[in-house]
């Protein structure tokens, strides 16, 4: 072999080593149904990021969310108005890892991690799986320590433990966001992660500016996606918020995760499920939309290895006030306690409008002392007795002395309502709430 030929072959080998010689598959847009694109010739797995070429030479991002026969179903993450039939679709890596770190504290970001507060893009060094890791159930520690929420009714009657998962259930306009704001002001936590999912843009700015004090915001991360964003971004925002909470919990931090709301997350998954052909079940919910709730909720808890914890509070919108709604029922089945807000109490200007009789903290017996538990049980007994006989009392058909428990419930009703009431800006410490309850119930 001549010296010249040998040098040419060597140069070709060196060049081949510098480039990726493997062919890249390019799909073609075959159909557009509503917000979803069907792409042929695109054999990539679920979760693959995509770039779709538009008529003006730019690219629209998306993600593979399902399949129909030989076609991939892609959810675009932006406007698809300038995409034509037959447009080229390129794979754009995976979207299953996100950047996390201390740099996120004090920031407001969207589902993609981009800043919404006008600041620079956070330069985070940490990486975290957005969908979480497969966890061993025995790595979850027990909830044994009470957490001060700053809300008297919750501290005294529905005590939350460090690492507990709680659902706040109510219809629209009953005070879920107000209660979240009260908890934020008084909660005892190292890090706070807030996911605002499917909210109106005005509500996002109002919550960040009006309900999160500056000293709280400095140790908080807010992930916000408005109602006009595509369903996939709403799902990713909830998963991103949970992944950020997981990162800090693994650093040994006590994290409070608040997500508003679990219902809108289920609605987003329902839209995606119906688009890829899932059969609707109760009230149009697809199986995947209800299966998503335990997958998300089970990521919170006490991390036995690091000593950190995620105390999670999820709001659940009871459509039409229906507490048997599938999402409400699925949420109550998986959380460790639920707080029901009552519209009649809200209409009577009792805020927070907590219906004590229908609310429950499953872990309260494990984290409070016997005197506290006895006083809370007596309060619930009086509350339930009055609620069950309120019609008789209001009509004057009840004869005093017929029922000793109901007599006490009637006598203590004004004081019990005053105990539930708490001004928006006030904070009642756990020990103070406990002492007031025990004194009021005579335990």
Description:
The chain has 443 residues and is of the alpha/beta class. Helix content is 37%, strand content 24%. It contains 15 helices and 20 strands. It has helices at 3-18, 152-157, 176-186, 201-210, 214-217, 231-249, 262-275, 287-297, 326-334, 343-347, 364-367, 370-388, 390-395, 404-420, 430-441, and strands at residues 26-33, 36-40, 48-53, 59-68, 71-76, 88-94, 97-100, 107-109, 126-129, 140-141, 146-147, 160-161, 165-170, 191-199, 220-226, 254-260, 301-303, 309-317, 337-340, 360-361. The strands form 4 sheets. Strands 8, 10, 13, 14, 15, 16, 17, 18, 19 and 20 form a 10-stranded mixed β-sheet that branches. Strands 1-2-5-4-3-6 form a 6-stranded antiparallel beta barrel. It has a two-stranded antiparallel ribbon with strand order 7-9. Helix 6 packs across helix 7 (262-275), helix 7 (262-275) crosses helix 8 (287-297) and helix 12 crosses helix 14. The longest helix is centred in the middle third of the chain and has 19 residues, at 231-249. The chain is elongated and about 85 Å long. The mean pLDDT is 89.
